[in-house]
Amino acid sequence: MMATQKTKKKSWLQHGLKTSAALVASALLLLTLPAHADDKDVPSLKGKRIGITVAGTDHYWDLKAYQGQVDEVKRLGGIPIALDGGRKEAQQISQIQTLIAQKPDAIIETLGTASVLEPWLKKIRAAGIPLFTVDTASPSSINVTTSDNFYIGEQLALKLVNDLRGEGNILVFNGFYGVPVVAMRYDQLKAVLKWYPKIKIIEPELRDVIPNTVQDAYAQISQLLNKYPKGSVQAIWAAWDVPQIGATQAVDAAGRSEIKTYAVDGSPDVVSLVKDPKSSAAAVVAQQPYLIGKTAVQNAARYLAGDTSLPPATYVPALVVTKENAAEAQKTLGQTDAK
């Protein structure tokens, strides 16, 4: 009887891994479908002033999304009022107050801590200004343009599970759960791991920081590699890819080739790490931040032209980048080091 139960359990796990592998394979196909903002029939923004507020532009994703918004407002004939919060919440809030006072035709807000921002996002709407967001889920927003972060979190977790063959210990960075997209990715990781009880998150979870993210991640992982001997850690997960850089550098410097790293965003330097066969970077889910920013502006333009059919969320496809497809992904993503 016990032998039968063990056989059934083994069969269940093998089936789960095969099913997850099939899902990942499907995701790779689905997420590589070309996606471009539809430039046709986008209404003009001539004479319109569009406020743009972003939490910061020090990270590749943030900067490209910001540039996408500014460029598209100009392309459509509008006037961008673009403000960078410099990763200081008080500064971004002050800038939002400034934008409200200027009464632009619409405001687009990007990233930040939801609980801190929401009172000010409500004030934008209370002032009668249409609000659109990028990567900020908010009940005050007419539309949020983003990647499908539920799907991203699931697919990254499934990739990790399959690489580990359903068993191992992982280190997890969880420093910015207050940012909605980060929370979505983390929650999906936990949801997937629920079904793979032989994969354990090492406690306490790590906290990533801003600024000096790479250096801090390198220091934290280097210290933990001294604490946990070879064979006791199999993977490192982060909700965005700047901590992955530091973690990957630390793993490679220590010669711990048994450890793989995983994250989200797809900055060019991280995609290059994934491409490198000698690097411990196993996968990154690459988003299209410039297209996300551009699409947010187009949604605002349609709304200002009288289109009331916008959905609450617009999802721009992402791409799961692995060792196997990294070279092709660089070309698909239009990254400058593509060969």
UniProtKB/TrEMBL annotation:
Subcellular location: Cell envelope
GO biological process terms on file: transmembrane transport
Origin: domain of life: Bacteria
Similarity comment: Belongs to the bacterial solute-binding protein 2 family.
Signal peptide: 1-37
PANTHER family in the cross-refs: D-ALLOSE-BINDING PERIPLASMIC PROTEIN-RELATED (PTHR46847:SF1)
Any Gene Ontology CC annotation: cell envelope
Name of the protein in its database record: ATP-binding component of an ABC superfamily ribose transporter
Lineage: Bacteria, Pseudomonadati, Pseudomonadota, Gammaproteobacteria, Enterobacterales
InterPro entries: Peripla_BP_I, SBP_2_dom
